[in-house]
Specification:
Length: 507
């Protein structure tokens, strides 16, 4: 056979009468015929698959946690080894308590704080103190220097450095004046694997109440809630002599003024919601009452030697004079003894004898003992001066009473004394009311401020399952559509085979 000529070779393969071709139009027609049926099937599959995340959500509980940052806000007394230095209040920059000691953070989970927190909130489920205590965690925050030292020591441990352990032991960790308090959800039930879960809002409120209770604990422990003592009401005008009552009244007014003057500036400047007055205003009123009502009457009684019973007063003043003189003698002896000791202490040096030899050597030593002696000597001189003034005053009073030249009206002096006591008592009551209001004010009771509770909370139903519901719904629809196509395809395959078999029989 020549290559140039056309040629054709037909190869016939015996397929035993089988035809594997499928008409896609037939498949489409089959799917169209079962459209209504499989529409319901698709809907049913979507509903079933969407329900799967819902069922899983009912049996699965996600633990959540809330946390707050607590900042200490008060002044602490700066620590000093020198007893001659006066302690100065400084803003707290570490975890020191207001009295200068280390702050006890374990009190956050104490029974006092937790019970007060539980009593101040209504929960949907009851939890005990022990359950609440187990879920509270406190995390302190290192200063930048301490954090770097810790990182260096940890790096040395990783490098297997021989001095790593010594480095770790020498690191003194310090913390800033902030710490983090967290509260976990899921409170364990004794002898059970189940837990009690609170709603997210209740968990936030509960942590807020715990930190508020801890602040109350700090204020109760370290704040000075002491009101000024009432030294005016005990003054018995009827049984005491006029001069005795005036002495007590003057002392009471002086003590009251010192109490007010010793308060911080923010306390003095606080204005009452009742009358708009501040403690500074009340101090001015107190000073006016003392000058007009007390000192003027005292000068009048003192100059005119007004007394209800001269002999009795003379006996009291003489007795007081002997007591004051005895005290002054003791103080003078202390001054002389202390001065003798201090005279041997020059240029911070003392002579120390060596027991192993006859020689002696001088060692420069600054001791706290001598510093205290210096302070004590200053107090001795101050006490001696006060006693000398008191003795001079008693001598003048005795001399005036001995003259007996007073012709003043005693009843008039008693009426003025009663009026002065009434005015001073009114000022004292006003100061007490002002201090009670101040002590309940937030600025006076806020020792620790905390942020709002934050953290990953338990998501709601839709946000927690929306993606899963959409995904499972798509999978259900895909499965139903696949079943629809496979059913129509199988029906068309069956029809094609029957048609092929029919053609084969006819041949």
């Amino acid at each position: 056979m020549s290559i140039e000529k056309d040629s054709q070779i037909n190869v016939v393969v015996n397929r035993n009468g089988k035809d594997d071709t499928v008409d896609l139009m037939g498949v489409y027609k089959n799917m169209k015929c079962s459209l209504r049926l499989y529409g319901w099937v698709i809907l049913l599959c979507v509903i079933v698959c969407v329900s799967v995340p819902v069922l899983l959500y009912q049996f699965k509980t996600v633990d959540s946690q809330v946390a707050s940052v607590v900042t200490l806000d008060y002044d602490v007394v700066c620590k000093s080894d020198d007893p001659l230095l006066t302690p100065t209040p400084m803003p707290v920059d570490d975890l020191s308590a207001p009295d200068g000691t280390d702050l006890d953070l374990s009190q956050i989970s104490s029974a006092y704080v937790l019970q007060k927190a539980l009593n101040s909130v209504v929960l949907s489920k009851d939890i005990t103190l022990s359950q609440l205590r187990d879920n509270i965690k406190v995390e302190r925050i290192l200063t930048e220097d301490s954090r770097r030292q810790q990182e260096v020591a940890s790096k040395m441990l990783e490098d297997k450095n021989g001095g790593a352990y010594e480095q770790l032991q020498s690191v003194e960790l310090t913390y800033i004046n902030q710490f983090i308090v967290s509260l976990d959800n899921g409170f364990a039930i004794p002898n059970s694997d189940k837990k009690i879960y609170l709603p997210d809002d209740e968990l936030r409120v509960l942590l807020d109440r715990v930190l508020a209770s801890y602040n109350d604990y700090l204020a109760t422990t370290y704040a000075d809630f002491k009101l000024p003592g009432d030294e005016i009401s005990p003054i018995d005008i009827e049984n005491l002599d006029i001069m005795e009552s005036l002495d007590l009244l003057r002392s009471a007014m002086g003590t009251l003024y010192e109490y007010c003057d010793g308060q911080p500036d923010e306390v003095k400047e606080y204005r009452s919601y009742r009358d708009g007055r501040s403690l500074n205003d009340l101090m001015d009123t107190l000073q006016t009452a003392q000058d007009v009502n007390v000192e003027y009457l005292y000068s009048h009684v003192y100059a005119n030697s007004i007394a209800k019973d001269r002999e009795e007063m003379l006996g009291k003043y003489r007795y007081l004079l002997r007591e004051e003189q005895t005290k002054l003698d003791v103080v003078n002896e202390n001054i002389a003894y202390t001065a003798e000791i201090l005279a041997t202490y020059k240029y911070d040096s003392i002579s120390v004898e060596n027991q192993d030899s006859d020689s002696s050597k001088t060692t420069k030593i600054t001791t706290e003992y001598y510093n205290k002696l210096i302070l004590q000597q200053a107090k001795n001189y101050e006490e001696a001066a006060a006693l000398a003034i008191s003795i001079d005053d008693l001598n003048v009073k005795i001399a005036n009473l001995q003259e007996g030249t007073s012709k003043s009206d005693i009843e008039q002096a008693k009426r003025e004394l009663t009026s002065a006591v009434s005015v001073c008592k009114s000022v004292y009551d006003s100061i007490c009311l002002q201090m009670e209001e101040i002590m309940s004010a937030p600025f006076y009771t806020s020792y620790a401020e905390h942020t709002a509770a934050q953290g990953e909370m338990t998501p709601n139903f839709l946000s927690a399952n929306l993606k899963k519901m959409i995904l499972f719904g798509i999978i259900g629809a895909f499965l139903a559509c696949g079943m629809w196509f496979v059913t129509a395809f199988a029906a068309e395959m069956k029809r094609s085979r029957k048609a092929a078999e029919g053609k084969g029989g006819k041949q």
